[in-house]
Design brief:
Layout (H helix, E strand, L loop, with lengths): L7 E4 L7 H14 L3 E4 L12 H14 L2 E3 L8 E4 L6 E6 L6 H13 L5 E7 L9 H12 L7 E8 L6 E7 L9 E2 L5 E11 L4 H18 L9 E7 L5 E2 L2 E10 L4 E7 L6 H17 L6 H4 L1 H8 L1 E8 L4 H14 L2 E7 L4 E9 L7
Parallel strand pairs: 1-2, 5-6, 7-12, 9-15, 10-11
Antiparallel strand pairs: 2-4, 3-4, 6-8, 7-8, 10-13, 13-14, 15-17, 16-17
Helix pairs in contact: 1-2, 1-3, 1-9, 2-3, 5-6, 8-9
Length: 367
């Protein structure tokens, strides 16, 4: 317990030591109505303390639950957050930069799911930016995996936005739920389809996206993965309409679906610092890693499932590839704040991992 009466102290420098700790802690604080004091925020990073994207996310959940937030200044290494009553309605957040809208969704979406009324989250910033999921991966992989717990979140991508200016905009339409159901995702099954999207925007010509797609398919062909043999890889390659994107950008997101309903993603973001061929190869390696790791989710979705497992009622199980530091951090914070119990075991048969969780059965008392 923090020296400040009633606040649970969370060390923001442990394990992954980045913005993820802020997002999970803030989200669970709002849901569980537990005041938190996050200290040593991003202390081990080259540029420690709160950045614009973290501040925007904290203010967003403060608005949703009408809480109080102290110390939330740019570069601050400590904040106090005291949540209030969660509300539905229309909420707006803008990083005013290429700060990722998907990371804003990570902190706010679970809170909105347990509101008394439906919510619309209007999120602005970078939709396809470094160090965060691309919006296409968020909508086509994460939101689809979220359905295993029960929620079906509708979305609208108004405009894509890229580094350095952002300018992207999405809407999430969130209907509240009473509770989350536990998941049993332990059988990856066999691949039945591979589909994806490769885009370019702004002044970049369509040949940029076409080159990324070609390189992606060629890398997969050369890899000759047994899991992909006989499967047709369908990539929709296109240029965004002028009103559908702000600035120049390119990227590719690919989704592999299995016979047991698992969805695994692979992606890469185009950059002026690398060739289109390199972008395509990166996405291919990303997808190959996901489908060959033996898990039911890819490494980017892995950690995002943890919070929902902790809140769900009953026993959940999730088979994954090698655990990421983000996942280990998510388990640490979720256990600490919720009291949920996690057990992690290696499966010697295929070197995958099984995450077992006895969730707390959190209920929406507003419904």
């Amino acid at each position: 317990m923090s020296q400040d009466t009633g606040y649970r102290e969370i060390d923001g420098s442990v394990m992954e030591g980045g913005g993820q700790i802020i997002r999970i802690t803030g989200c669970l604080s709002a849901l569980l109505q537990v005041p938190v004091n996050i200290v040593r925020i991003r202390a081990g990073r080259a540029s420690p303390g709160l950045k614009a994207q973290h501040l925007t996310g904290l203010h967003l959940i403060k608005d949703i639950c009408r809480g109080s937030l102290q110390g939330a200044d740019f570069g601050s290494n400590q904040i106090h957050f005291r949540p209030g009553k969660i509300n539905g309605g229309d909420f707006f957040a803008d990083t005013q930069s290429a700060g990722a809208v998907c990371l804003l969704a990570q902190i706010a979406l679970p809170v909105a799911l347990f509101a008394p009324q439906p919510s619309v989250l209007n999120l602005r910033g970078g939709t396809n930016a470094d160090m965060a999921p691309q919006i296409d991966a968020f909508t086509e992989v994460f939101l689809q995996n979220l359905k295993h717990f029960g929620p079906n979140v509708e979305y609208e991508v108004v405009k894509k936005g890229f580094f350095p200016k952002g300018g992207g905009e999405i809407n999430l339409f969130v209907n509240p739920i009473r509770s989350l159901q536990p998941i049993q995702l332990d059988n990856p099954g066999k691949l039945i389809s591979v589909e994806g999207w490769c885009f370019c925007a702004g002044s970049l010509p369509i040949k940029v996206a076409e080159s990324i797609t070609r390189a992606f398919k060629e890398e997969l062909r050369q890899a000759d993965s047994p899991a992909l043999r006989g499967l047709r890889v369908n990539i929709e390659t296109y240029k965004e309409a002028p009103n559908a994107a702000f600035g120049n950008g390119s990227g590719i997101v690919v989704v592999a679906k299995t016979s047991t309903g698992c969805l695994l993603g692979g992606s890469a973001l185009g950059s002026p610092k690398e060739s289109t061929e390199e972008t395509g190869r990166k996405a291919a390696h990303d997808l190959l890693e996901a489908i060959e790791c033996g898990g039911c989710v890819d490494k980017y979705v892995q950690d995002q499932m943890v919070l929902f497992m902790g809140l769900a009622g009953g026993d959940s199980v999730l088979r994954t590839g090698p655990l990421t530091l983000h996942t280990e951090t998510a388990i640490h914070i979720t256990e600490k704040l919720t009291g949920a119990k996690f057990d992690i075991r290696n499966d010697p048969n295929d070197n995958s991992w099984l995450i077992h969780c006895k969730g707390i059965g959190f209920k929406n008392n507003y419904l």
